[in-house]
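Entry 14. Two folds queued back to back today. First construct below, sequence then structure tokens.
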Amino acid sequence: MYRLTDIVLPTANDERLLFADDTATTHVPPVLVREVVDTTAAGDSFNSVYLAARFGGACPEDAAKNGSRLAAMVVQHRGAIIPRNAMQLEP
């Protein structure tokens, strides 16, 4: 499937297993939340903001920080769609 796609966002473990690649060395700590309610769509939310930031010219670390912030908001709500006013991406 990797050959049929333009963009793939594997986990670091998957990348190591599939490609013997240990080049991903920057650690971006997750945004901590008081209570995790539901992890549905956390990964998709992270990926969407990460990609939007990268396409907008952000460096990988800043894009990951932005993705982590949205994922932190998402896990505090039930289900895949959170209220629009909960998506405040300003630092």
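Second construct, same run, same settings:
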Amino acid sequence: MELLPVTKDAVTGAELLRDLAIIYAWVGEKDLAIKQLEEVLRIPSELSYGQLRLYPYWDPLRGDPRFEKLLEESKKPVAMK
């Protein structure tokens, strides 16, 4: 994460943030997983509504109101600055 932050490599950096969110979800760190997802969804990335909705990676977060809110927000396009 420190070697390839989003500021250095937008594509790989976003993938690393997503992967960290998956790891946090798998080990039960829901708060940290949600925090990482919030960060990834604020930037252009491959993470999409369909992936959040269907991929089993996110099963540990399903039912959490914060995840459901992020799921709804992921339907909206990311604003480019």
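Quick look at the second one. Residues 10-73 form one domain. The CA atoms of residues 52 and 58 lie 6 Å apart.
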